[in-house]
Amino acid sequence: MNFTWRRKLRRNFIRAIGFSVAAIFLFLHAYWTISSDNDIDYSPRLDADYESSQDSEGGIRIFDRAAFDSAVANMKTKVTKCVKTKVWRAKFAICVHSKARDEFISGSFLSGMPWERHVATIVGKMLRAFNGPNNVLVDVGANIGSIALVAAALKFEVFAVEPLKANNVRMFQSRELNQFEDRLRLIRNAVDFQRGRVKMTTMEKNIGGSFVQDEDDKEASGEFVDAVTLQDVFDFVHSDFYVDGGKKINVVLKIDVETYECRAFLGSKFLFDDPRFFIAFIVMEWNFRTKSGFCEACNGTMVDRLTLFFTENGYKPFDEYLSRSTPLDVSRSRDWPHGNVIWIHEAAPKVDSYSEIGTLLAETFLASS
Questions:
Q1: CATH topology of domain 35-354
Q2: What is the mean pLDDT of each run of 10 residues along the chain (369 residues)?
Q3: Nearest partner of 358 among 98, 80, 89, judged by Cα
Q4: What is the C-alpha to C-alpha distance for residues 107 and 115, in angstroms, rounded to an integer?
Q5: What is the pTM of this model?
Q6: Contact predicate 163/223, CB 8 Å
């Protein structure tokens, strides 16, 4: 009895020390995260001496200096709020919308909490898992760059595809503030199963919830953009990215296109056969269910086809935290809970699961360095 009592006391004492250390790190992390010097008011530098934006083959539109100057000239306010933040081992500034316009993603950063920190951390780990220099992030549906900027801060090449002008303006400002011009390319396109002209409609208070409407939909109001295919995007990546020794480009593909994921992948059926790339990881939103069934852009049959498309090409699905070593049940892909799904190729390098404490510790030491 005496021995058992002592063992319990020792175990509780060690546990108390562990909680105390964790509390100290959490306090320091919060202090550095919400520090008052994190806010930056960004006034854009207009420069008319840059070349005009040109459409390259495949309808790809590069959001360059000329496109930025044109967009900013029509903005009601020339000052954008930007905040300093950190995610895992990445420290950077991100330019955001007002909370009234974007209550989720921008609101999260304005509150001192990076949006989907766990996803950004895992994407960073995926990029670092590769050997060699030929590693890129292709971020389709990049929004204001919450994932793209993490990868760029970790010194990886990034291609951020985003259709909305206002989001591209913020990413351009972030790129300039962080001096990421050498490794972050901005592409202003929607992605669909075929090329065409589409309307982007946004949700009130949630610019991240923008979605595609057909150009012929007379009732839809929004911003006209050019849609391209995933294959178009990857063709541009290959033409723009220097490949060391003619080797394959290792790709982490993150895609969030508001239920158009089915159309995007099924419209580029030979993407996984492209010998120029090894797409090892795919991080994608999986929100196809509605209260009455399935969304129009990706119905139950298309979900089945998409699932089969991945599995036949050597991918297995996992939850967005990589918390389990066993894959998700593909026979129940129609009923997977809303959120992100991570598809990992059978030949991909190993990536550790997400650890909240480990990420906070990395961010705390990063802030103090």
A1: Rossmann fold (3.40.50)
A2: 59 59 53 55 45 50 96 78 95 95 94 95 96 92 97 98 95 97 97 92 70 60 89 95 82 95 95 96 94 89 97 98 94 94 97 85 69
A3: 89
A4: 9
A5: 0.85
A6: yes
**DSSP type of residue 25:** H
Q: Give the pLDDT of residue 87.
A: 95
Tokens 């351009």 found at: 172
DSSP code string of 250-280: EEEEEE--TT-HHHHHHT-TTGGG-TTEEEE
Q: Cα separation of 41 and 50, whole Å? A: 24
Query: Rounded to an integer, what distance in angstroms lies between the CA atom of residue 214 and that of residue 32?
Result: 45
CA atoms within 13 A on the CB side of 46: 10
Biggest alpha carbon–alpha carbon distance for the chain? 83
Count of Cβ atoms closer than 10 Å to residue 346 Cβ: 9
Report which of 311, 201, 216, 344 is spatially closest to residue 260, judged by C-alpha positions: 201
Tokens of 110: 């304005």
The answer to whether the beta carbons of residues 172 and 160 sit under 8 Å apart is: no
